[in-house]
What we know:
- This protein is an alpha+beta fold.
- Helix content is 40%, strand content 22%.
- It has helices at 2-23, 67-76, 80-98, 136-142, 155-158, 164-173, 195-198, 208-219; strands at 25-33, 36-39, 52-55, 58-59, 102-107, 119-125, 134-135, 147-148, 179-183, 189-191, 203-207.
- The chain has a 5-stranded mixed barrel with strand order 1-2-3-6-5.
- Strand 1 (25-33) and strand 2 form a beta hairpin.
- Helix 2 (67-76) crosses helix 3 (80-98) and helix 3 (80-98) packs across helix 6 (164-173).
- It starts with a helix and ends with a helix.
Amino acid sequence: MKTNIIILLFALTFSVNLVSAEVSSHKVIKVIDGDTVYIDFNDNGIPEQNEKVRINGVDTFETKLNDSLEWQMKLYGLSQDEALGLGYYGKEFAKKELLNKSVKAEYTAEEKFDKNNRHLMSIYYNCNKNGKCKNYEEEVLKAGLATIYTKSNLAVQLKPFVNLDKIKAYAKKSHKLNLVLLNNKTGKFHEVDCEYAQYMGGAELVQKKVLEKLLAVSVV
């Protein structure tokens, strides 16, 4: 009997945690890319593995060389620079729209977690006094920085927000970015196709000219 009560209490606690993650407002404390963020469900200011959220319904472009980037290049007829540029713009969009903001996260997929054990959620933000909020999936699609994840249960619902013309415009614009990979541990940067950089942990895609300005200021 005692064992059954303990199990019931554990189940109730777990359920409450899931509900709070869906309903309450929590801050986005880290952006991985345009469709993956950390939401501070624990409210301790530390991005923890169980707070990693894969935004449901959308697929933004990769920020590093991998099989997914190759697939995106072939699917949309993009060069490597263009695909990475779209990934860079997508991450910057997520940072501008979500980072350090309180958001409402809701489970909207058929499963609560993806194959990598990330929460599968929709994100609502910039809510007004009447409770009307922006939907991040819709906004990133309208901005031309994401495509629909076709296997998502939201694929049909989100289809009207896709903007292929803007995707093409950002791809063209990306040629001027001159992107490099910054090693946040050493402060050194590498070309995006550097073999060593591909296996480097903590690497971040940045504009070389912006990085050089920052380094010049730090030296002064």
